[in-house]
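Pinned message: reference record for Small ribosomal subunit biogenesis GTPase RsgA
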Amino acid sequence: MKLIELGLDHGLAGPASELAALELSPARVTAVDRSRYLVRNGEGEVPAELTGKLLHLAESSVDLPCVGDWVGVRYRDAGTQASIHSVLPRRSFLRRKAAGRDVEFQMIAANIDAAFIVQSCHFDFNIPRLERYLVMARDGHIEPVVLLTKTDLIHPEALERLIGQIRRVAVDAQVVCVSNVTGEGVDQVRALMAPGKTYCLLGSSGVGKTTLINRLLGDGDLETREVSHTGEGRHTTTRRHLILLANGALLIDMPGMRELGLLGAGVGIEETFADLAALAGQCRFPDCTHDSEPGCAVRAAVERNEISEKHLRNYLKLRKESAFHDLSLTERRNKDKAFGRFIHTYKKHKGGPDQD
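Predicted structure (C-alpha cells):
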C-alpha cells in the first residue's frame, strides 16, 4: 500500500519527505487509547510509544499525536514496534475544550476531509447540538455533512419537517437520510467517500454510528449492542480508531461525546451562523449585542420570522461560551508565563549550589 492511499496528500508530502534526513519514517496514527498508539505505513500496523523528548518538548496535549495525525517514527524489533519522534503539521483538525473544569484544548482527530454529523430522527434530534458539531467541524477546516439516521422510525411528513429544521441552520451542508434497517441512504454515504480521503463520524452514543460503519464495511466486523427499551442504541465504540474501507476511503470511528465545550472557535461560530453574521453588519451600532439596542438588524429579522429566536439564542450562547473560555485560557497562560519568569529570576539571583 502506498502512503497516498493512507491519506498522505501533496500538502503533507513535503514535510514527510524531510523525515529521511532524521532517519525517521512517515506513518499515520490509526488508534489512540490513553498513552498507547497504533501507527500504520505501507507495510502494516504496529504498536508505538512516544519518545521522552517529544513528551518533554510538548507544551500541552495539543502537541501530542491524535488519531489521523502523520508522525515521524523509528522502527525497532524487526519493525514490530515503533517510537514516535515528531508530529507533522495538521491540515485540518477536530478539537474541543477539555472535559471538566480544565480550560485547555483537547485534540480529537486530525487531517480529516469531511465530518459526517450523525443525528437520530427519533430521540437524539437536537438542533443546538447539531450547531455545536457544525462549529467544531468548520473551526477545524473540515467540510460538514449531516446524516439523519433511523428514518424508518418516523412518517415521511415528520421527516420532511426535521430536514426543514436542519436546512434553516445548516444551509450549505449536505443532508443525507439513512436507515440502518432498510439500508436507505447507505449507498449515498458511500458515494460521498473518495479513495485516499479521510472522514469521521460525529454524534452522540446510540445514534447508529457503529451499525452504519458495519454497513459501509460490508462484513459487520465492529461490535454493536441491542437497542434499549426506548428505541435508542447503546454505546459501543470505546476508542477512536481509523478504518480503511473497501473502496479505499478512510473513516475514523469515535465514541459519542457528552461534552462539546467550545474554545477558540470564533471562526467556526461565524461560519456556522453566517446568516446572523451578515445581518449583524447591518446593525446601527458595531458593538450591538442583538438584545434590545435600537436599529438591531438581527432582532428585526427575528421579529419578521426570517430567523428563529432559538437560532439567535444559541448563536449568542456559543459566542459567549467561546469568549469566556478563550479569556480563561489566556489568563491561565499569562499566569504560567509570569510564574516561569519568577522562577528564572529567582535561580539567576540565587546562583550557585544551595547553601545549608
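Pinned by admin. Summary line: The first strand starts at residue 25 and ends at 33.
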